[in-house]
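haha ok so turns out i had the wrong file open the whole time. this is the CORRECT one, sorry everyone. sequence first:
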Amino acid sequence: MSEQENSQKPRRAIKNLPPERFQPKVLFIWLAIFAAVVGLLVWSPGITTSPAKFTIQDVVERAEAGEITKGSIQPDSAGGTGWVVIRGEIERATLKSDRGADTNQFIASGRLTDTNLERLQKTKKFSEQPKDTLLSAILIQVVPFLLIIGLLYFLFVRQLKQAGRGAMSFGKSRAKLLTRDRDKTTFADVAGCDEAKEEVSEVVEFLKDPKKFTKMGGKIPRGILLVGSPGTGKTLLAKAVAGEADVPFFSISGSDFVEMFVGVGASRVRDMFEQGRKSAPCLIFIDEIDAVGRQRGAGVGGGNDEREQTLNSLLVEMDGFDTTEGVIIIAATNRPDVLDSALLRPGRFDRQVYVDLPDIVGREQILRVHAKKISMADSVDLSLIARGTPGLSGAELANLLNEAALLAARRDKKKVEMIDVDDAREKVQFGRERRRVMDDEEKKLTAYHEAGHALVQGVLDDGTLPVHKVTIIPRGRSLGSTMFIPKKDLLTHAMKRMLNQIAMGLGGRIAEELVLNDISSGAAGDIKQVTKIARHMVCDWGMSPLGPIAFGDNQDTVFLGREITRSENVSEETARKIDVEIHRIISEQYARATTIITEHRPALDKIAEALLEHETIEGKHVLEIIQFGEMRSPVIVAPPPKLAEKTTEKKPAEKPATNDFVDPSGPAAAPNPA
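then structure:
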């Protein structure tokens, strides 16, 4: 019952909401200015009309001749006693104004004697008007200047204040407030990080019902640090916490604290926490906190004084306010190793939540969340897509589905089909297809190179990393690709599997040498990858006769916030032994792959011929050639997008190195030493 009562309690309104775009006061100001201008034109008829100028004697003579139809006589104190202004009209517009236009109006000013006044009165065409009052004269003279001054103030001074918020506004916080009506995110929009959601769920419960924790004597963590690779959803998770708790959510980047003026960063930190206290309970999210929270006193020159002052202010504010105020700090970074130790101690960021890359179940959940916004066909199997995208983050999976939707739209389809998703996945992981013009010799070289990779992997694979597709169509920087889809997430690296990977990586170079009796630079990427794997085996994973010893702990991180030191824990003799072991591993696998390709030479030729004919074949075709000596399944070619083909000029360029297989150290990287 208590939880239901708490959920039914009316929540207080959020303070300090940003102003709406439409402001009625601005409209009223413009209407007042328009009305004043119209009134000024009405009160000053001379502005809109330009009458002809007469003398007093001309007016008297024309009046006695009967040419004037009507007129008015008004005293004018500006000229002295007896000075008047006579205005009137004649029957026809035969008069010329100062501007040269025809008009029937006239004006005359001067001294009017009693005799002339009697002569005008006898015509019965003129009416006498009272003299202007002092107030009306002041209004006519002052109102135009007031209008001009007010317009200048509104256009310039007010706009400068709104843009700069005053001369000293650069010390104010730049934290943005996300309201509950706009940009609301909940835990339903976050998938693939169940453990992280459980960690931060305590924050949601604390913000909804703080007394539940304070009665037991418990304290909510003052700061929560979200750590994870880019694109794993750290910012989205923080926004979901604010959406679930239904409290104000302030967002600011770590770089917003850094300015060229001394002391500005510390001032912004203090102002940010002051805003948080006024809107408590609330959340303050600091993205990329490593921009301001790096280790103090390190690097070239002893560090940055302004950044260190900002960090000191942040440390004091986090340890200075009480958690009962309901202000919780959430920060995100992908470089926790460069943060200052004082920032990570209990009492400040005393809880670290690791947001890892999603596993196969998490990837499927992420795909289902993003697939709700896309018109998908029923044939699309999201579980198969999740299995074929190991190591991709949530942002990359969202981009994959977006690319599939764009590709389906270019193909004039109503819904996204499975072939569109497969093509989008290959584009994201391996690069877009480039229909580069290659001669027969280049095609043959690339076909045998990729056939060597596919043949060795097809023979050695134990079912964990089967061949998915082989193509000689250029993608990215490579002229051809041999793609693999693991049956499961590879969290560890077995020694046998690593040796198979090295042998497979050398299969392309061996096939070139055996068939064409020559080698090319196309295996440059393969050589780098196999050398990297062999070095990991010797230096990091202990998979050599040198024993389980880590030899790769060389530190040279002066510009990453560490000390000005470079430590090498390997002697020259040990380094020589490491090189010998790396050479031994690669040489043994080179001989092993050579034996496999020599024994299966007919299969190598069949795979190369199929690639030259179809350009792209699937993994099942490779296995059929190895087992039966021929392809028994039809080759299905995806239709290209309907785009206007453009002829491109051939540019001589060096052949880029191929990147034919996935780096096995990617999905499961070696653990960092503590």
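The longest strand covers residues 68-75.
again sry for the mixup
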